[in-house]
Amino acid sequence: MKLTILGSGSPEAYVRRASSGYLLEIGEDKILFDCGGGVFDNLVRSGRLPSDITHLFFTHLHTDHMMDYARLVHAAWDEGAPPLKVWGPKPIARQTELLFGKDGVLSPDLIARTELAPSQQVWVARGGELPRPWPAPEVTEIAPGFSYDGGTWQLTSCEVPHAQPAFDCMAFSVEAEGKKFVYSGDAGICPALSELQGDADLLLHWCYRLSSDDVHPAIAQFSPTPADIAKSAQASNVKKLLLSHFRIHMDSEEGHALTKRELAELFRGEASVVEDLQEFTV
Description:
Shape: elongated
Number of domains: 1
CATH architecture: 4-Layer Sandwich
Strand order of the largest sheet: 6-5-4-3-2-1-14
Structural class: alpha/beta
Oligomer: single chain
Order of helices and strands: EEEHEHEHHHEEEEEHEHHEHEE
Number of strands: 14
Distance between the termini: 5 Å
């Protein structure tokens, strides 16, 4: 398995980090987890095309995890790719319809591209056939506990505390080639995640605050520090730990020094803070 970091940041506009998005490659399958703002551009910068994505899984539907969804679907469609396969919690089906349906917000663009003669001829010149169908992602709404058999890989999930009851929030585990990859999504430390990440070869965990941050208890409850995450990963026998979802203020020299110190003190395996476009082998 090969992991590429397409977005390691937060909702904050930040040149160093796009919002959340992670690409996992297993054989011919290119599996995208979340698709926040800036992820589309980093996908292209990494040398892949939108049409390369074979599966898209959403952990939850905060905008920093799905803002580039419409762009990905539209661009893959414009390349002539088959409908993108999408899994995510409710209301991803309704959101998709509101984007790409006959009365969706993108309907004026899609009418122009499929019905106007000049656009039709451009499409035909690129190898397309008429009539040109609209984008139609194959959307499956899922809930925590969902599992999926990808043939050469298996995905499982659990619920994690983050933004309930606004919508479901999940973590995902993927096992393939004798290895185990776990992506926490946005998650507070909880028994279900501790079990899911057990014996993981690589755990990718969100980290939204530092131990030195003075935050409201409501934030602290659901936003573990590097120290919290390191302790949890160590207790779960995780082999390698990667932290992501860093905010602007956390990228200071002091913030990184504190994070590295806590990881080294509390986690015995390899651990680091990721950056956009980094690649890792699981």
